Amino acid sequence: MAKTPRKAEEIEEIRARILTAALDIIVSEGFINLSMRKLASRLGMTAANIYNYFNNKDEIYILVRARGFEMLSQDMNRVYDREKGPQARLEGIIRSYIDFGVKNPDYYKIMFNGSSPKYLDYIGTPMEDVAQEERKSSLKAMEIVLSTIKSVIKCHDETDLMQHTIKLWIMINGIVTLYNSIGSRQVFSKVDIVIKRITEELINSYR
For residues 159 and 52, what is the distance between their CA atoms, to the nearest angstrom? Predict the structure, then answer.
């Protein structure tokens, strides 16, 4: 008796489970140790079954990154739509970005701080098109920040605008990275309070 084809919702649920398991392996053991066999073992599936949903581990890794950027973009878009003025939007986006990084440290790590492959590493490979889609996801978040900063600082020079954006990203990334660091909690007993104050100082610098 032939198996009943899975519904689209079931397929997406299984794909999501695979991506979540892959994220855990990449963060805990590194991208180099991610394999279809290891994923299958963790999920109680066969490696052959994993291939029914993804072509290879690189595709899985790229889609995990894309998933993280989509989550971040959605969070910031909600803030952008909710707040009515440029200043309120920028403050909300800064808080939203930091909140995302703190609540999703695993995604944040492979999105920004990991040494795993990035888009440029896949140019000229069979995974280039998939990587290009992931790159588009990452640029969505950047475009939201760029447009918001531009409206706040009234900057029309593209180089200056990018400088402001990169400076802001460096500050935010530093805050999130420090907060998520186990070492920081061993060195600084009141790191939560300090991070909150630094965040407020960063927001105040744009008022």
Answer: 46
Cα 119 from Cα 203, distance rounded (Å): 31
> CB within 8 A of 86, min separation 6: which ones?
148, 151, 152
For 8-54, CATH number out of 3.40.50.11810, 3.30.70.330, 1.10.10.60, 3.40.50.300 equals 1.10.10.60
State yes or no: pLDDT of 78 exceeds 50. yes
Nearest-10 Cα torsion for 18, 24, 25, 28: 180
Spatial separation of the C-alpha atoms in residues 104 and 180, rounded to whole Å: 10
d(C-alpha 68, C-alpha 141), whole Å: 11
Q: What average pLDDT does the segment 121-132 reach?
A: 94
Total residues found in the chain within this entry = 207
Distance CA 191, CA 193 (A): 5
